[in-house]
Amino acid sequence: MTEADVPAWAAILVVALVVIGSTLSLLGAVGLVRLKTFYERVHAPTLGATLGMALVLLASIVWFTTVERRFMPREILIGLFLTVTTPVTLILLARAALFRDRTEGAEDTPRKG
């Protein structure tokens, strides 16, 4: 790989965005482990992954736009797909679990309403 001539402000911004984004993703993973019920667990990784992914992709946009000296839109497409699929997956998993719990008569099932 060749050396890239990147201004200091861009490198600092990219590092800050990647560190914050990865920290948010890590917090989502910790929430997955620490929370008790499925309904609590399903939210933490979804929110952490979505915002963490957005910040890492923003860092990627800044980096490659600075290095290539032109706008690189491929990260926007990746972010669009991940932003759409993550909440849809959350909804499908939660509805399937809710249906299962209501059919089996589980005690800690959220009420209709």
Give a quick summary of the entry.
This protein has helices at residues 8-34, 38-41, 43-68, 74-104.
Which tags fit this structure?
mainly alpha, 113 residues
Structural class: mainly alpha
Poorly predicted runs are: none
| Secondary-structure element order, N to C | HHHH
Helix count equals: 4
Biggest sheet layout = none
Instruction: Report the strand count.
Output: 0
Shape: elongated
The whole-number mean of residue pLDDT values reads: 86
Cα-atom radius of gyration: 19 Å
- Strand residue content: under 5%
Helix content: over 70%
Distance between the termini: 57 Å
Layout: helices, strands, pairs:
Layout: H1 8-34, H2 38-41, H3 43-68, H4 74-104
Helix pairs in contact: 1-3, 3-4
How would you explain this protein's 3D organization?
The chain starts with 7 loop residues before the first helix and ends in a 9-residue tail after the last helix. It has four helices and no strands. The model has no long low-confidence stretch (mean pLDDT 86). It has helices at 8-34, 38-41, 43-68, 74-104. The chain is mainly α and 113 residues long. Helix 3 (43-68) runs antiparallel to helix 4. 78% of the residues lie in helices and 0% in strands.
